[in-house]
Specification:
The complex is a heterotrimer.
Chain A (H helix, E strand, L loop, with lengths): L9 H9 L2 H24 L3 H17 L1 H14 L3 E5 L2 H14 L4 E4 L3 H5 L2 H7 L3 E4 L2 H8 L16 H11 L12 H18 L2 E4 L3 E3 L4 E6 L3 H7 L3 E7 L3 E2 L2 H15 L7 E5 L13 E7 L3 H4 L15 H4 L2 H6 L10 H12 L1 H4 L1 H4 L6 H5 L6 H14 L5 H14 L2 H18 L5 E2 L6 H6 L2 E2 L6 H13 L1
Parallel strand pairs in A: 1-10, 2-3, 2-4, 4-7, 5-8, 7-10
Antiparallel strand pairs in A: 5-6, 6-9, 11-12
Chain B lengths: L12 E4 L3 H6 L1 H13 L3 E3 L8 H5 L3 H14 L5 E4 L2 H14 L4 H12 L1 E3 H8 L8 E8 L3 H5 L5 H7 L3 E5 L15 H4 L1 H17 L4 E4 L2 H13 L5 E4 H5 L22
Helix pairs in contact in B: 5-6, 7-9, 11-12
Chain C lengths: L2 H13 L6 H13 L13 H14 L3 E5 L5 H11 L5 E4 L3 H4 L9 E4 L8 E5 L2 E3 L4 E5 L14 E7 L3 E2 L2 H12 L7 E5 L4 E2 L7 E2 L6 E7 L2
Parallel strand pairs in C: 1-12, 2-3, 4-7, 5-8, 7-12
Antiparallel strand pairs in C: 5-6, 6-9, 10-11
Classes of the chains: A alpha/beta, B alpha/beta, C alpha/beta.
Chain lengths: 477, 268, 223
């Protein structure tokens, strides 16, 4: 099975992104909005830090007992009239979903926002089999029109400007008067609402993800601000829930803890507009709701992360706070990362799911500033996990040769203090002498990466240790 | 001036962890640190040292890191405190050394012992020695960049500001996003230079917008990165390590400037 | 080996267990039964008028509008007034909720229809299962009394909630759900609703009425 990714071309992607003025303008919107709002929400809730600890502990506990909670969950879903399917990988998941859609005689399928659905590339598969998937989250709908991947896990179209959206709507929505005014965002929204309303009502199958799965009751939870996930799951005859296995949470109380940190971390809201708890197909007394309820539980690499040094990544609740605060994400946006998950969480998760040989750049493209870890609601030590990937790459000789030899040389000298002091004295004296006129270098051999964007300050000339030694000798003489 | 808590030994023996960047690139920072520590009543020694291993550590080479760490642990054995004019280097020892020796209880204990007595310079002066002011003069406005490791690993934020507020003639102007990364990140600046360039570009704009003629920080890597960008862009901000200003040792040219071009900063 | 078997085997292998360990099973069983609460913000832990006031403040902060009436009998007129004030047609769709049914709709000229929404309704009214003062959230339960589609398809959604059903926190609502539906059981859908539908997907501009209702109006009935 091939995964479609451009992660190996991260550097080129990043370079393109840095020169994309539309993107840079759009990214400017991201920074302050999300960051300030999250801070305000955290400041307003004295228990916020305690809730983060609680959320982390609940996730850790669940992962330690994942097999048992999965069993309990499965029993409850079945008891409520739903069907549980297990998929080892993306291939299997796609097959299961297609079968369910075929059984339902589906021609169109509406979709709520689901990162796991991007991961398994289900849209491509459905289309190839004559079934039309329609994204209903406004951001996802917009990027579907553009045939793009989401660039952020919460705000998929954050990389776009309103003008670009207008152009796409004009291009695709041929049913409306070409002279209509779409200059205001609210007009774009009204048009999207009308178009998607028809799709909602016509869909045969609705596919959603699940922010959480509750073992106690066999419940799947979706969190949205639009209500699109709800219309996706209650209008069609069949509802399919896609969820990776680590979405499990033990009880309704436990999920309430997580919900208290999710929206606050993601958008700074106290609570998202719609948090919906769904259990099985419609009951005898229901006036609406799907007749068929299917849950496809997907592994796709998660079980192999358990019990390893990357296990903590499985706590992730997909809030997006890490990327909202990341200076690298702010500079290049989400598409540069080349796959489904961008930002710090993408840098850690992607190598686990598609291999470090393809995704090796991602955990390296970090300054380890630590902001991500400081805002993660479940306290994932993201820089530490990125460093683990760097260790794996080093062991497997995946780091570029120049870096290895440079560091190897440094290590050689650093292990030998006398040689180190001698060599550094000589080198710094030379460099200091060479730079004494201007105090800096605009260009240095072996430092092209540095000097491309900034000057290299010249050393003062004599090393600290040389002068310390000299002054010591003078004092004791 | 110095306010040593009575429970401490008369003159604490401080091992100066000079850091390889300071050692090689800007020793005056090391001497400024020595002055500050001696003025505060410490006995300072700088044992022969090389590198704490952070570049190897962040590149995934645990083997070399451990070798260098063992050296450092032995080098600084016997001091009461180990102080570095760098949040990231102090953080390497304090936060990461113990974890390096997880499987070796003997070395783990030694690493933990060293970690427990290792501090970043300004936080050592303020939090451990209880120093609240320094005897220095520096005329003009300065803005302060919070280096990431210092801030998030070592809790350095209020301490340099407290000490700077006691410097005669100095006014502190906060820039926008002072606590946002400058884009250095060690080898990141070279390996992902375009992205690093974009991040430091944003930082340089914030520095310029603060209208402060001087930029200070506690980590030389960040300072070299920002100084290099400011000079490349022709922005005439003087960049120094905070220790230089606190110690009243600003005779040396600012970072990236030549000897002839440095007027004395402490005269109006 | 089926996919299911392989996944469980993989999980157990990674965790270093075989799945039949008594202690682990007991721990899980215990948590599922006891459902320990965790950290509950102090903010919502108020009662009486203070709790209703908090609910109102939080709901309004989420861009819902809130009004209070003194008895169920006042609800129809309150709704009629709300619709008039917003220049909305005097039509209203609702389910079979007995509490709504018992209200004096005849005192108004509202054109009432019953049942789930087919997509063409402008205004709808539902009765909430409860509310949560902590965040101004309404808890809606599916069923023919209050069809879930009424929460999403109409342009304007009115939710009636009894003051006595407004709880301090979500945990109290879960207790009531368990009491009504049985421990470990749930209705088909529980919706927590906090304000009207919105999206920030176009240049981070906040817009209401993304797919769900543009307006959410809450009527708190004191008895």
């Amino acid at each position: 099975m091939t995964v479609h990714t451009t992660s190996p071309q991260f550097k080129q992607n990043a370079a393109r992104a840095l020169h994309d003025s539309q993107l840079q303008k759009a990214l400017g919107n991201v920074k302050q909005g999300f960051i300030d709002k999250r801070q305000a929400a955290a400041d307003k809730l004295p228990e916020f830090e305690a809730l983060r600890d609680s959320a982390r502990d609940i996730k850790n506990h669940t992962l330690e007992h994942l097999d048992l909670y999965l069993e309990a969950y499965e029993q409850k879903v079945t008891a409520s009239g739903g069907h549980v399917h297990f998929a080892r990988n993306a291939d299997e998941a796609r097959r299961i979903i297609l079968d369910i859609c075929r059984d339902a005689g589906a021609k169109t399928v509406t979709k709520g926002k689901s990162m796991i659905s991007e991961e398994i590339e289900i849209n491509r598969h459905l289309e190839a089999n004559g079934i039309k998937p329609v994204e209903t989250d406004l951001g996802e709908y917009i990027i579907q029109l553009r045939n793009e991947l989401p660039s952020h896990i919460i705000a998929p179209a954050v990389h776009l400007n309103a003008t670009q959206v207008e152009q796409d709507f004009r291009r695709v929505h041929k049913q409306f008067d070409a002279k209509r005014d779409l200059s205001e965002p609210v007009q774009l929204l009204t048009e999207a609402r009308a178009v998607l309303r028809e799709r909602f009502l016509a869909a045969d199958v609705g596919i959603t993800g699940a922010n959480f799965l509750v073992a106690e009751t066999g419940t799947s939870i979706i969190v949205t601000n639009e209500g699109n996930g709800d219309l996706t799951q209650i209008l069609p005859k069949t509802h399919i829930v896609l969820a990776s296995i680590e979405k499990l949470v033990p009880t309704l109380e436990d999920v309430s803890q997580l919900l208290r940190v999710l929206a606050r971390s993601a958008t700074g809201q106290e609570m998202s507009v719609y948090t919906t708890f769904s259990t099985g197909p419609r009951r005898a007394g229901d006036a609406d709701g799907p007749e068929n309820y299917h849950v496809v539980l997907i592994d796709n690499g998660r079980s192999s992360m358990l019990g390893t040094s990357f296990e903590e990544m499985l706590r992730c609740i997909r809030c997006g706070a890490c990327m909202n605060h990341c200076p690298v994400y702010h500079a290049v946006g989400g598409h540069a990362y080349g796959w489904v998950y961008p930002g710090p969480m993408g840098a850690v998760l992607t190598p686990s799911l598609i291999g470090v040989d393809k995704a090796g750049h991602l955990p390296n493209a970090s300054t380890f500033c630590g902001r991500c870890e400081s805002v993660c609601p479940v306290r994932i030590p993201l820089p530490k996990l990125m460093r683990h990937w760097r260790e794996r790459e080093f062991e497997r000789h995946l780091a570029p040769a120049s870096v290895r030899s440079g560091l190897g040389l440094w290590g050689f000298f650093a292990r030998r203090p006398s040689l180190y002091r001698f060599a550094t004295r000589a080198a710094m004296a030379t460099l200091g002498f060479a730079g004494r006129q201007r105090g800096r270098f605009s260009w240095l051999p072996l430092a092209k990466g540095w000097t491309k964007h900034r000057d290299f300050p010249a050393p003062q000339g004599e090393t600290f240790q040389a002068r310390w030694q000299r002054e010591r000798n003078r004092r004791t003489a | 001036m110095s306010a040593l808590p009575s429970s401490r030994p008369e003159k604490p023996r401080v091992g100066l962890f000079v850091t390889c960047l300071v050692d090689l690139m800007r020793p005056s920072v090391g001497f400024a640190a020595v002055k500050l520590l001696e003025d505060a009543g410490c006995l300072v020694e700088a044992p022969v040292q090389t590198c704490c291993g952070q570049p190897a550590y962040n590149s995934g080479d645990r083997g070399t890191t451990r070798d260098l760490a063992m050296r450092m642990i032995e080098t600084f054995h016997g001091f009461d405190y180990v102080v570095a004019p760098s949040g990231s280097c102090a953080g390497m020892i304090r936060k990461h050394y113990p974890e390096l020796f997880e499987e070796d209880p003997n070395w783990r204990a030694k690493a933990s012992a060293l970690a427990a007595k290792t501090y970043e310079l300004t936080s050592f002066l303020v939090d451990v020695l209880g120093i609240a002011e320094v005897d220095a003069t520096y005329h003009g406005a300065v803005t302060y960049h919070d280096s990431c490791s210092g801030l998030r690993e070592m809790g350095v934020k209020a301490q340099p500001r407290l000490l700077l507020s006691s410097v005669k003639g100095l006014s502190l102007v906060e820039m926008k996003d002072s606590d946002v990364c400058c884009g250095f990140g060690g080898t990141f600046a070279v390996k992902y230079s375009d992205i690093s360039g974009a991040i430091v570009d944003a930082k340089a704009k914030n520095v310029a917008d603060s209208h402060a003629p001087t930029l200070l920080a506690g980590d030389l890597g960040c300072l070299m990165n920002m100084a290099g960008k400011l000079s490349r862009d022709g922005i005439p901000v003087k960049v120094r390590h905070v220790a230089e200003v606190l110690a009243g040792m600003t005779d040396e040219p600012a970072i990236g400037l030549a000897k002839e071009a440095a007027p004395r900063q402490d005269q109006p | 080996m089926s996919a299911r078997d392989e996944i469980f085997a993989g999980i157990r292998r990674s965790l270093g267990v075989n799945g039949s360990e008594t202690i682990r099973r007991q721990i899980v069983q215990d948590r599922l039964e006891r459902a320990p609460k965790g950290v509950i913000p102090a903010r919502g832990q108020v009662s009486g008028d203070e709790r209703i006031a908090l609910f109102k403040t939080m709901a309004e902060a989420s861009l819902a509008t809130v009004t209070e009436v003194n008895s169920p009998g006042e609800v129809p007129q309150s709704i009629a007034l709300f619709l008039r004030n917003h220049n909305l047609p005097a039509t209203l769709r609702m389910g079979d909720d007995p509490r709504l049914k018992a209200m004096p709709w005849g005192e108004t000229t509202l054109e009432i229809s019953h049942g789930p929404s087919q997509g063409g309704d402008l205004n709808a009214v539902s009765h909430a299962f409860g509310g949560v003062a902590e965040t101004g959230t309404l808890a809606m339960v599916s069923g023919h009394e209050n069809p879930s589609t009424l929460n999403f398809l109409p342009d304007n959604h009115i939710i009636v909630v009894s003051a006595k059903d407004i709880a301090s926190d979500y945990e109290s609502v879960w207790n009531r759900v368990r009491f009504s539906f049985g421990k470990g059981s749930m209705p088909r859908t529980v919706n927590w609703i906090t304000g009207p539908s919105r999206s920030g997907d176009i240049e981070q501009t906040l817009l209401l009425g993304a797919h769900g209702p543009r307006r959410l109006h809450v009527i708190v009935v004191r008895e």
